[in-house]
């Protein structure tokens, strides 16, 4: 399998005044093209920090990070902006939709800054929202709003979709709809997906599970038979 991303000895130290906290303590990892990765770890283990470094939102304090062989750790802010804009889609727990725009308009907004966007209509169909195009966020359920956020992240055609607790605010049924949308984008569009979560059940869907513990990648497990979202419950 082709390596999409590789990290070597990644460290992250946060400084607040005189106090230094080493959150990541030397992480080595690989992400393959088309991977579906779930990152598990206790609160404070460094999951969001890890995701933000992969997404080019935070710089590591030390270590090397390569995307398609290009050294992101040596990139200036301009190159990192292009990387974030063209290669990465982000999905967060709180959907961050524009309340005064419809579903279609919220997704279309992302197309305007993209180099090689997908069709808004196609993506809305893939996430099961084709009949909700003209609705405003306040007229949608939490699961539907999260699927708009996923459509917005994917329509710009990024290689990598990074999701921070995408089902954290959802009940199980709506959470499963969201996971189905993510799995479909992984299978149909071959997007590489990384989800961070506290929910160990979601890890059963992954190709590989990264276990973060005390700032280290404690273990990587391969799922020989990843489950579909309908087969998991929490
Ligand atoms: N910008 C920051 N400045 C200082 N400390 C930070 C900053 N961001 C995160 N931290 C600290 O780094 C540690 C790891 O945080 P992080 O959010 O990466 O962990 P997490 O595993 O995602 O946690 P959770 O599951 O609770 O979201 C925490 O102790 C947090 O307080």
From TrEMBL:
GO terms for molecular function: ATP binding; ATP hydrolysis activity; transmembrane transporter activity. One of its GO terms (cellular component) is membrane protein complex. Residues 5-232 form the ABC transporter domain. Signal peptide: none annotated. Pfam families: ABC_tran. Keywords: ATP-binding, Nucleotide-binding, Transport. It comes from the Bacteria. SUPFAM superfamilies: P-loop containing nucleoside triphosphate hydrolases. Gene3D superfamilies: P-loop containing nucleotide triphosphate hydrolases. SMART domains: AAA. PANTHER family: ABC TRANSPORTER ATP-BINDING PROTEIN MG467-RELATED, LIPOPROTEIN-RELEASING SYSTEM ATP-BINDING PROTEIN LOLD. Belongs to the ABC transporter superfamily. This is ABC transporter ATP-binding protein YvcR. The lineage of its organism: Bacteria, Bacillati, Bacillota, Clostridia, Eubacteriales.
């Amino acid at each position: 399998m082709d390596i999409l991303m590789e990290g070597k000895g990644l460290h992250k130290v946060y400084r607040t005044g005189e106090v230094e906290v080493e959150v990541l303590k030397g992480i080595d990892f690989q992400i393959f093209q088309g991977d579906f990765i779930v990152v598990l770890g206790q609160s404070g283990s460094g999951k969001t920090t890890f995701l933000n470094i992969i997404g080019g939102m935070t710089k590591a304090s030390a270590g090397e990070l390569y995307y398609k062989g290009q050294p992101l750790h040596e990139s200036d802010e301009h190159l990192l902006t292009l990387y974030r804009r063209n290669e990465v889609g982000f999905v967060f727990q709180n959907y961050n939709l524009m309340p005064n725009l419809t579903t279609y308009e919220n997704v279309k907004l992302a197309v305007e800054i993209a180099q090689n966007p997908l069709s808004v209509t196609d993506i809305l169909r893939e996430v099961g929202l084709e009949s909700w195009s003209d609705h405003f966020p306040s007229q949608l359920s939490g699961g539907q709003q999260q699927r708009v956020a996923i459509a917005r992240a994917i329509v710009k055609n990024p290689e990598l979709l990074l999701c921070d607790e995408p089902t954290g605010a959802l009940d199980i049924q709506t959470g499963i709809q969201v996971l189905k949308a993510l799995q479909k984008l992984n299978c149909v569009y071959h997007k590489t997906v990384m989800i961070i979560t506290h929910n160990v059940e979601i890890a059963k869907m992954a190709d590989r599970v990264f276990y973060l513990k005390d700032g280290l990648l404690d273990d990587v497990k391969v799922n020989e038979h990843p489950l579909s979202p309908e087969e998991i419950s929490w």
